[in-house]
């Protein structure tokens, strides 16, 4: 039987566990120790990636770590049709991305880190061998939760568009006299002054009613 003290201790431990899990970002090694590997001899994937994904909890800011080689590809898409077709040939640049480890020869080991930056359904597959790898199990879906949100390193605004600087022969327009800002002392009142005025009027009314 739980005593009040033991019950309180259990609740505290649960709260600590939940708080700890909600204050960290995690790396998820895809497939665990099996990696992201396709066996071309048996025409099978190294493990059941759907079952692996179902055992994980994914949040914004987490990373998927693909321990793979150059015989496989890593495709990320938010388009379920692209995922179902096991090819990115007709996909949009805005919803489907291919990652690689920079290897140019076959059967070279590679580690690819993919950040999770969008909440909801994220799909991953290998389209190598004309989609055969995907059809034979090299594919999985995950649901990404909000969690802590994106860390600053993944939440940077896009750079401003490039504007070509003017050439040396371009004519600079002279500055326009005056400005749009009202000069001091012209009766312009800021929001702070307006608030003070309202508070003064309110105080006078209250005192008059006493």
UniProtKB/TrEMBL annotation:
Signal peptide: 1-21
GO cellular component, one term: plasma membrane
Keyword Signal: yes
Transmembrane segments: 188-209
Residue ranges constituting the Phytocyanin domain according to the UniProt record: 26-146
Recorded GO MF terms: electron transfer activity
UniProt keyword terms in alphabetical order: Membrane, Signal, Transmembrane, Transmembrane helix
Residue ranges the record marks as coiled coil: none
Protein name (Swiss-Prot/TrEMBL): Cu_bind_like domain-containing protein
